[in-house]
Design brief:
- It comes from Pseudidiomarina halophila.
- Keywords: Membrane, Transmembrane, Transmembrane helix.
- This is DUF3014 domain-containing protein.
- This protein is mainly α.
- About 45% of the residues lie in helices and about 5% in strands.
- A 4-stranded antiparallel β-sheet has the order 1-2-3-4.
- The longest helix is centred in the first third of the chain and has 26 residues, at about 15-40.
Length: about 290
């Protein structure tokens, strides 16, 4: 369970983990070499000393089954047939490379996402961690700053319908967000969680740059998720008021919502439901991690 303590301080970078991992690799290598040396020098089975037998003049032929083999010819087969088991090579985990600098981390993150078969096409940021931290911090404060968004916005124009002297959101406007929502819900929660764990020191560094040096990255992300999850569910038909600059929600309760929640409403009911399901899965993973 992740502790959302505001006094949490991100751990230092991955250098300590790298040193520990290298130490483990060296120890395992020594063990393997020791076993191999043992296999190259197998223990010799000892044979009993031959016993001298005085010759007998009068011999009696006895049935072959009653003959007792000469002790000198007796061989302890059990010891020779018992071969030492070959030492199995222990599975060695490659140590994680050291973290890049914050300003140089975007290429590595995108490469890791692609290696995990995660689509990266909508991502447009050259400073992904910095932009993502600012964007998420804005969301948890109910603000949407599109210029700081780390992903490309929807294509197409916002549409409205006019009926009986009233203005409504055209349901076709919701389709503008389909491809972006498809991309978001396709992301693997476990991959995202692992990325956050690896780059937590860099996320903490970016948080410190905007004035949150002692705030855990998980706290910021969970706060933002809570804001979006609190968006009320409404029907497809949403009435608007026409203002000189932009449309506003005719319902005062909707217009009073934080900008982040109003943006969720503009996704449309189906897209909003899908986004909420993904956010819930991510929140559960963070809380249970």
């Amino acid at each position: 369970m992740i502790d959302r303590d505001p006094n949490y301080q991100p751990q230092a970078g991955g250098k300590g983990k790298l040193i520990a991992a290298l130490t483990i690799v060296i120890v395992l290598a020594v063990v393997v070499i020791w076993y191999l040396m043992q296999d190259q020098n197998p223990r010799q089975s000892s044979l009993p000393e031959p016993v001298a037998v005085e010759p007998q003049i009068n011999t009696i032929d006895e049935p072959a089954e009653n003959l007792v083999p000469d002790p000198a010819e007796t061989v302890e087969l059990g010891e020779e047939e018992t071969a030492e088991p070959e030492a199995e090579s222990p599975e060695v985990t490659e140590p994680e490379p050291e973290l890049p600098a914050l300003t140089e981390s975007t290429d590595e993150i995108l490469a890791r996402l692609e290696a995990q078969e995660q689509p990266v096409e909508p991502i447009q940021s050259e400073q992904l961690i910095r932009d993502a931290v600012v964007f998420v911090d804005n969301i948890r404060n109910g603000v949407v700053v599109r210029d700081a968004a780390p992903v490309a916005g929807p294509k197409g124009d916002f549409r409205v319908l006019e009926q009986d002297d009233k203005i409504y959101i055209d349901p076709r406007s919701y389709d503008r967000y389909n491809s972006l929502v498809d991309w978001f819900v396709s992301l693997d929660v476990e991959v995202l969680e692992n990325l956050l764990e690896r780059y937590q020191p860099l996320v903490g560094e970016a948080l410190a740059e905007i004035g949150y040096p002692d705030t855990a990255p998980e706290t910021v992300l969970l706060d933002a998720i809570d804001v979006l999850m609190a968006t009320p569910s409404v029907g497809t038909v949403i009435e608007l008021n026409d203002h000189s600059v932009m449309y506003r929600f005719a319902d005062p309760a909707l217009e009073a919502l934080p900008d982040a929640q109003k943006q969720m409403l503009r996704l449309g009911p189906d897209n909003m439901r899908r986004v909420k399901l993904k956010l819930e899965a991510l929140r559960t993973a963070l809380q249970d991690g």
